[in-house]
Design brief:
It is a single chain. With 642 residues, this protein is α/β, with parallel strands linked by helices. It is built from 27 helices and 17 strands. The strands form 4 sheets. A 6-stranded mixed sheet has the order 6-17-9-5-8-7, with helices on both faces. It is globular. The mean pLDDT is 90.
């Protein structure tokens, strides 16, 4: 029996209409379990807000049971103490279960297990079945997991060769160790004299920091620079075997050749002979990588990573013009759009069920994530910068300017999903409210309630009203931040409109959009704004409510005022008949299921990269389901620790 089957045996199909589950470890929110429960006919919901829950329960389930219809609901609660807040009729009418990691792994330390990502449970569960020893404490559990799940045995790491091999293996595979394991590994290795000069606290947990460190050491090695400790023995066979792949896969960038020494054959992959040729080769490799990945089965984490690679490709093609095979790019884009849309239709609904730790997944989880870091990690001052409409490839342009202007800033980069349809009133309102759009029906199509939602969220988190600030900034003058700083607030939410303003006036497609954003970034607005926030003690988080995409008009829909919202890529109706009529009258349109939306809203989306505008017209717009519109950056910015 695997760990999922042990849990799923509690949920036979079509037997219990209502089940309440105390699930502090969010086990039911694991993707395969969620999908199996869905296949068995269950709906899952997380109990958070009593009013929101009662609204959903009465309108979607109680009325159906009263009519004699079948419906099967599982309500999950993350804390047993919340059972007292559940309405009596729900507790009395349903069965009660409790699930816990302590039941799955009773002889391992629960606090350590609670930090482990669920994707590693299967491997650990198999190993655990053969463990019959005593109950392990925290340190022994950490060692057990490192060895049996991640293949890292600290006592076998004796010097530069072993630690470099371990870090290459870990970071190239993208292994995500929980912080508690990273701290343990840093502590154990840091006790060894041989690693006294190694920046372990940076390069062990962070792939970005490790490859930045390795890049510097590679330059020193190639150019024969007398390097201080630590020294990486690149010429050792154990390390040399990685060299070609490190440069082919883009982990390291080739450096200029030395002027006074010959480079050995094995090292030539990391030395530039022809810079233009090298960039073209890098781009061709990136296209090949994307083509291969799109043939694989992908989950939401894979799409987040793929969105970054796709953004790099778009940036190089639109600003560098390096990809000469235009047809190949078009075929890749069509394949990407089709596969991503199919995945969204199947899997998008489950994202809202996933926990917001260790990183938020949907935009409405961001305030909850910030509150966790405020209360648990002492981030007493936080600033959320929402760049309205910023797509991933445009973030790469901005990132370049931020790094050039402030190389001492530490950027921790992740990606999150916008709400669909990717319209500002829907996705941005959810972001500032900390709620799915389903619970914002009264104001869902309005865009001026963000501040109210933001203040209400933090009021509920026990933050005094005078310590919370919301602002809408044009994005033209760094002095705009002065009012925010003068407010004395510790929790700041800011919307920067500049990218959205550029978008809605853009006639030159994605290339023109990138050029305008590059000029804006070079003007120093974000550098200046973020710098002032950091100097005033804020940790800065930068994100977007949605992205944007270049689209081609397929013709307008002439339904006058019948649509509640009329975007270039999405339209919203409150009548099934009206949305079906609009879909029938459009060349390229699809009705999107109201995932996470109030049931009365019917959404019509423009297919692919088309728009409900004049036929043949090029626009940069949002509202749809392309990768560029749905997955946006989520960046933590702070001063690098010395």
């Amino acid at each position: 029996m695997n760990w999922r089957r042990q849990i799923l045996q509690n949920f036979p199909a079509q037997l219990y209409p209502l089940t309440v589950v105390v699930d502090p470890d969010a086990l039911l929110q694991e993707e395969e379990i969620w999908q199996t429960l869905k296949d068995r006919g269950f709906d899952l919901t997380v109990y958070n807000n009593p009013l929101n829950f009662r609204f959903m329960y009465e309108h979607q389930y109680r009325c159906r049971w009263d009519r004699g219809e079948e419906a099967y609901l599982v309500v999950t609660i993350d804390d047993r103490r919340k059972l007292a807040a559940l309405p009596y009729d729900i507790l009395a009418g349903g069965r009660l279960l409790q699930l816990s990691l302590a039941d799955l792994f009773p002889r391992l330390s629960y606090p350590v297990m609670a930090e482990l990502d669920k994707e590693y449970f299967a491997r650990l569960y198999r190993i655990y079945q053969d463990y019959h020893g005593p109950t392990l404490g925290d340190s022994a559990t950490k060692h057990h997991i490192l060895k049996h799940v991640f293949g890292i045995v600290p006592e076998t790491i004796h010097g530069p060769v072993e630690i470099t091999q371990m870090l290459l293996s870990r970071h190239c595979r993208g292994l995500r160790l929980p912080e508690v394991l990273d701290r343990y590994l840093v502590d154990v290795l840091g006790r060894k004299e041989v690693f006294r000069h190694w920046p372990l606290e940076k390069i062990v947990p962070s792939a970005v920091a490790f490859f930045k460190f390795l890049q510097r050491k590679w330059f020193d090695f190639v150019h024969g620079v007398e390097s201080r400790e630590p020294i990486i023995p690149f010429d050792r066979y154990d390390i040399r075997v990685y060299i070609n792949d490190l440069f082919a896969d883009g982990y390291l960038e080739p450096v200029d050749p030395p002027k006074d020494k010959e480079v050995p054959d094995w090292a030539r992959a990391g030395v530039i002979v022809d810079r233009e040729k090298a960039r073209k080769q890098d781009l061709e490799r990136l296209v090949t990588t994307l083509e291969k990945q799109l043939d694989e089965t992908l989950d939401y984490r894979d799409w987040q990573k793929l969105a970054v690679k796709w953004a790099h490709l778009l940036l190089e093609c639109d600003m560098g013009g390096y990809l000469t095979d235009r047809r190949r790019r078009e075929l890749l884009q069509d394949k990407l759009d089709h596969k991503f849309f199919s995945w969204l239709r199947e899997s998008y609904g489950r994202l809202a069920m996933l926990p917001y730790l260790p990183q938020p997944i949907l935009v409405h989880q961001v305030p909850h994530f910030l509150n966790y870091r405020r209360t648990q990690l002492d981030e007493t001052r936080q600033a959320l910068l929402v760049i309205d409409g910023l797509a991933m490839n445009q973030w790469l342009v901005i990132r370049r300017e931020l790094k050039a202007g402030h190389p001492n800033w530490q950027l921790t980069e992740n990606q999150i999903f916008a709400w669909i349809p990717t319209l500002t009133p829907i996705s941005r309102q959810a972001l500032f409210a900390g709620k799915a759009p389903l619970y914002l029906a009264a104001s869902l199509l309005e865009s001026h309630k963000d501040g109210q939602h933001w203040r209400r969220f933090w009021r509920d988190a026990q933050i005094p009203v005078d310590k919370v600030h919301y602002g809408l900034l044009p994005g033209t003058d760094p002095a705009e931040i002065r009012a925010t700083l003068a407010s004395g607030a510790d929790i700041v939410g800011l919307v920067v409109r500049k990218v959205d303003d550029i978008m809605h006036g853009m006639k030159l497609g994605s290339a023109g959009m990138l050029q305008q954003i590059a000029l804006w970034a070079q003007g120093g607005y974000l550098n200046g704004t973020i710098d002032q926030l950091l100097k005033n003690g804020f940790v800065v988080y930068l994100t977007a409510d949605h992205g944007n995409v270049a689209a081609t008009g397929q013709g307008t829909i002439t339904d006058g005022i019948l649509a509640e919202a009329r975007g270039q890529r999405a339209r919203i109706y409150t009548s099934k008949t009206l949305v079906e009529q609009a879909a029938a009258g459009a060349d390229k349109a699809v009705i999107w299921p109201p995932v996470g939306l109030p049931a009365e809203y019917k959404v019509l989306l423009a297919k692919g990269r088309s728009a409900f505008t004049q036929r043949g017209q090029t626009v940069v717009a949002h509202g749809g389901t392309t990768l560029e519109e749905v997955i946006v950056p989520f960046i933590r910015i702070e001063e690098a620790k010395s």
